[in-house]
């Protein structure tokens, strides 16, 4: 089943087909459940200044007002004003806020999913302190309730909820993990108990960047930290988070939480995956319903702590002039800004920062599930051109990142634009520059 919003075709995944009236009712019910006091405060606080537009790479690339971040939550705001606000009866009586229609929802599927990476740059810049990205995430929840999550995200989330993997694979990821260990000559600790650290990997690395998986295992072996992968919870990404399925997101996170508890881990180590970090570090405990009995650390955070303690020793890396892509969910939402730079400094890297870096860095363009949405590719490519120019302007020959989705997005850009840079993993660089076995204290 499909419908059309402007030039954007909206295709529903199997299991999402329903009448227009049912989709509207589902969305309105979702909006109503999501609007709490904080959301209402945020919606009421907007002064329509438009500053968030200048923070959004989709608006910057197109200059199209529909891509203004706060506009993307307009149906959410419209439903709130009409149904839940203090003046809702007046809005209905005078027709100041009309009912949200199925056609509007179809149009907003494009705005909420195809043209938003949930990167949070708009939230950072808002003079009223509105977390626009959080509102967009809540609006995605309502769209999921309406059966309007893009089919690619819906199907991957459904598969991951059932199996732990976003997609079927010729071999189970467990077997692929062990095969990577044999290929690169490194031990893959699997299903061990009473460990300090539980490890997981991006499915992107399993499928596209096995060297990064081997690098993680090699660094942990070097540090002699008791750790393990778990067969039932290898995948770091959470497609429930991408698709807006809050209950599915909870179940996917719960799989990792239960396994971390089972192996008595003190740390759940998130690999080079920005959205996995956000889902586990900031949202998992709320969905779980109580504090997590372990820390959630991004891999560069963990390695920077080991570096500071003197257990991680690195030699000079011969990369030449280098620039670094900050993953939005790690640096802007998680504050993981200093850790990767400490690692690069320890390797003597000549870092050439982009004009917008750290907390103000622009997204790669593929985050929030956008890379997986086929119809979003033309807009994504248009948006990425600004980012590629910014990277080129640094004059750097080596390009590093600590996010597998960023890496995959830039690899895709390299093919599409015949771009001359290949993104490299910071973790892989660390693993390639380890020196002398450290003495644990």
* Helical residues, percent: 40-55%
Shape estimate: globular
End-to-end separation: 62 Å
Instruction: Give the tally of β-strands.
Output: 10
Rg, alpha carbons: 22 Å
Instruction: Give the DSSP E fraction (strand runs of 2 or more residues).
Output: 5-15%
Query: Which residues sit in consecutive blocks of at least 5 with pLDDT less than 50?
Result: 1-11
- State mean pLDDT (0 to 100 scale): 89
Main pleated-sheet profile: 4 strands, parallel
Walk across the major sheet and give the strand order: 4-3-5-6
* Individual helix count: 21
Helix and strand composition category: alpha/beta
Structural description of this entry:
The protein is of the alpha/beta class and about 450 residues long. The chain is about 50% helix and about 10% strand. It has helices at about 20-35, 35-45, 55-60, 75-85, 90-95, 100-115, 120-125, 130-145, 150-165, 175-185, 205-210, 210-225, 240-245, 245-260, 275-290, 300-310, 330, 340-345, 375-395, 405-415, 425-430; strands at about 1-5, 10, 195-200, 225-230, 265-270, 295-300, 320-325, 350, 400, 425. Helix 4 (about 75-85) packs across helix 5 (about 90-95) and helix 16 crosses helix 18 (about 340-345). The protein is globular, with a radius of gyration of 22 Å. It starts with a strand and ends in a 9-residue tail after the last helix. Mean pLDDT is about 90; it is low at about 1-10.
